[in-house]
Request: fold
Amino acid sequence: MRLCFLVEEQYRRDGMPVEVIRRLTDWGHRVDVVRPGTSLIPVSESIRAGSHDAWVLKTVSGGPGLTLLEAAAAVGLTTVNDARAIRGVRDKALAAAIGRSRGLPVPLTYAAADWRTLTEVPAECFPLVVKPADGSSGRDVHLVATPERLAEQAALSEQDGPAAHRGGGMLIAQPYVANDGTDLKVYSVAGDLYATQRRSPLHPDRSLPERRVELPREVAAIAARVGEVYGLDLYGLDVLLGPDGPVVVDVNDFPSFRQVPEAADRVASAVLRLARGRAAAPAVPALPAPRLAPQIPVTAGEDR
Reply:
């Protein structure tokens, strides 16, 4: 097969997707790598029907790679993940609206263009977790205990200018979910689920090694539903085990798959299956309709 990977400079030496590309090449497939952040791309020649069997995106949130992937889908090329789905999770405000409307356990979410506007969030919602709508990797996540602390943060942000945060764009705020300082990260590799636990970025003082753990059946069912709702095949979700049950606080397309056994082989195989089995996307992007939840085997984890 002939594949094209869109890889931002940030991931140029990252094991995911570098090892995946190496596996595919070793297996006899041709892989072209495009670096959308640093390359001059002849889009009228490179992105055309029949140029590749599939295009695969591994770029930063807000980077130029998603536009190129959507262009590939618009001319009838297969994309992994589906280009129609990725923007729905990269914008966390949009992801929250989609998730809650489809019955996922997603927190009540407020969106605003600046910290000052967030001071209108009702007092009963505090403590609040505030983060960029286009954030990733735990960047700029804040736990704000009280309305007074939020007002202080708003005053500080106004000293730096009108932008919501240093990167600009929207902010989202969600009521803090009480937990023990542990994030449960669930990875889906084309339907196969794996779970790891790690320290929450909101609890930096807690000592907790990242390791594989057994995936609770309730969380496995939620993880499968996440893939259906957002139309994703390769994805990860962050889950907090709160006092009222599991809560999904983030969804990522094509994550790191850390702690997944033989991750490069599994992801490479999944890319090939998806490239061979998926019909080309329609030219006009649209959110895919939900499907009935498949029966997903739960993988019992062991420490690695």
Summary: Residues 1 and 29 are 5 Å apart (CA to CA). The first helix runs from residue 15 to 26. The radius of gyration is 20 Å.
